[in-house]
Design brief:
By secondary structure, this protein is mainly alpha-helical. It has a domain of 168 residues: MetI-like fold. The protein is 71% helix and 0% strand. One of its GO terms (cellular component) is plasma membrane. It is a multi-pass membrane protein.
């Protein structure tokens, strides 16, 4: 391949990547900039002054919307989903390392919810709760609905992790006299810990911003995505943009924290080796 042809391909791919980045982060950039409107600013460009007025307005009593309570519900729900996602995905990954009767059927049942429209899952769970005389709530029915979305991804990730995991490490530990529990706690778990952190982070973020599977299952109290959606037809100030900026920065902070933990763990493992 000639140098000119390689150069042309490079520029074409670079332009495509730049277009992708712009399409992905352009709307976020617009929300971020508009959140710094002045006190008399509106919802569109150009900016009418620059200030952090609308960020402080988030903590004041709103005529419409309850940011603080809905954020706490979404955060708590995300933590609940994250914990269950990590535990069940880990156990499923360990179980599927060996073939057992019905494993294929169980696998397809686990991932089946990924091909069912989210709103149908939400509607079905809400109807079931009502039929049993139970009141849908964010900590019960929405919790179950979110697990139908996060667990398949967590299980698939752990399948991939254990598919590449060499049993030679476990055999070496047993040869040195380690029990099955010691082998898991001191050999297997430290090696797959970064992947478990990824599973937990993935489950938390999927739950934190899930809308469709929460719509029919949250009950009386909204989670943050539902609260934001409800406010889009009522709020006419940049406080909505400020909320978007804060929640986006919060999500990025969680990701950076997880990456920092993984980096520290890898450095410690390198020192041990």
């Amino acid at each position: 391949m000639s140098h000119e042809k390689r150069t042309l391909e490079f520029y074409v791919l670079a332009a495509f990547f730049a277009l992708f980045v712009f399409f992905l982060y352009g709307p976020l950039s617009a929300v971020f900039i508009l959140s710094f409107q002045g006190p008399d600013g509106g919802l569109t460009f150009p900016l009418n002054g620059v200030s952090v007025h609308w960020f402080f307005n988030l903590f004041e009593q709103q005529a419409v919307g309850d940011f603080g309570a809905s954020f706490k519900r979404s955060f708590s729900l995300g933590l609940m989903v994250m914990i269950v996602n990590v535990v069940v995905s880990l156990l499923a990954g360990l179980a599927f390392r060996r073939k057992f009767r019905g494993s294929t059927v169980l696998f397809y049942l686990t991932v089946a919810s990924l091909v069912v429209p989210s709103i149908i899952i939400s509607l079905g769970i809400g109807v079931v709760f009502q039929q049993f005389g139970l009141k849908p709530a964010w900590y019960s029915s929405a919790f179950g609905a979110h697990l139908t979305w996060t667990l398949p991804f967590g299980v698939l990730i752990m399948f991939a992790v254990f598919n590449r995991f060499s049993p030679a490490y476990e055999e070496a530990a047993r040869d040195l006299g380690a029990s099955s529990w010691q082998t898991f706690a001191h050999v297997v778990l430290p090696m797959i810990a970064p992947s478990l952190i990824g599973v937990g982070l993935f489950g938390f973020t999927l739950s934190y911003d899930e809308f469709a599977r929460t719509l029919m299952t949250s009950g009386t109290y909204n989670t943050l995505p539902l609260e934001i959606y409800g406010m889009t037809t009522n709020v006419t100030t940049p406080v909505l943009y400020a909320l978007g900026t804060v929640t986006t920065l919060f999500s990025f902070s969680i990701i950076l924290l997880a990456l920092a933990i993984i980096l520290v763990m890898r450095r410690r493992q390198a020192k041990v080796v």
